[in-house]
């Protein structure tokens, strides 16, 4: 059948997700896989191509296909990377759902939290990120309407950073970040698949444009088993 390669892809992907095929190991050769699944090598190549595109394997010249560690997603601590950019590495394993998109005026309680001017108008955004069928990130954003005009729910569902850089022609420059471990809130428990976890990893960021204007305050709340935060350090 024409869709046999999809069934093979799903079988191998499931075995990688469950750990039956361990990260760092080489998959069987195309010949061995074709014998195991009793199909042609062309069908196996299609399945392997799909596994590669979805971020399950990496092809290494002269060696074959090595299984990637998909249990945790690497988030660079010092870099400014959008979720869309990370999601490209995962193919269709990652999806975004916009739960809240509203205009809001900064009042006293919010002013103390997000570091925007009192009475400034902001976009309030809540987005849930789904990876491998589970809701594992809740992103809570406040973005200046003055600096980022014309935002829409559709843009938020795609990429806010892409809109800022490509449509508005602005340069995103730097961020101040704080990483904490907290107990889940009622909102976390409602929107995330916490699977019995009693903590979430929270990254709070103030993000600035090239002229040092803060355009975004974001609070990204992560289920702890799916992510690792990485950086490169050099002794000076």
Keywords, please?
236 residues, single chain, 28% helix, alpha+beta, two-stranded antiparallel ribbon, six-stranded antiparallel beta sheet, 8 helices
Content-based structural category: alpha+beta
Question: Helix coverage percent of residues?
Answer: 25-40%
Number of β-strand runs: 10
Average pLDDT level: 88
Account of the 3D structure:
This protein is of the alpha+beta class and 236 residues long. 28% of the residues lie in helices and 34% in strands. The protein contains 8 helices and 10 strands. Strands 4-5-6-9-8-7 form a 6-stranded antiparallel β-sheet. Strands 1-2 form a two-stranded antiparallel sheet. It has a two-stranded parallel sheet with strand order 3-10. The longest helix has 14 residues, at 4-17. The radius of gyration is 21 Å and the shape is elongated. The N and C termini lie far apart (60 Å). The mean pLDDT is 88.
Q: How is this structure best summarized?
A:
With 236 residues, the protein is of the alpha+beta class. Helices cover 28% and strands 34% of the residues. It starts with a helix and ends in a 6-residue tail after the last strand.
Topology:
Layout: H1 4-17, H2 30-36, H3 41-53, E1 57-60, E2 64-67, E3 73-76, H4 83-88, E4 94-105, H5 108-114, E5 121-131, E6 134-144, H6 153-158, H7 160-167, E7 172-182, H8 186-191, E8 200-209, E9 214-222, E10 227-230
Helix pairs in contact: 1-3, 2-3
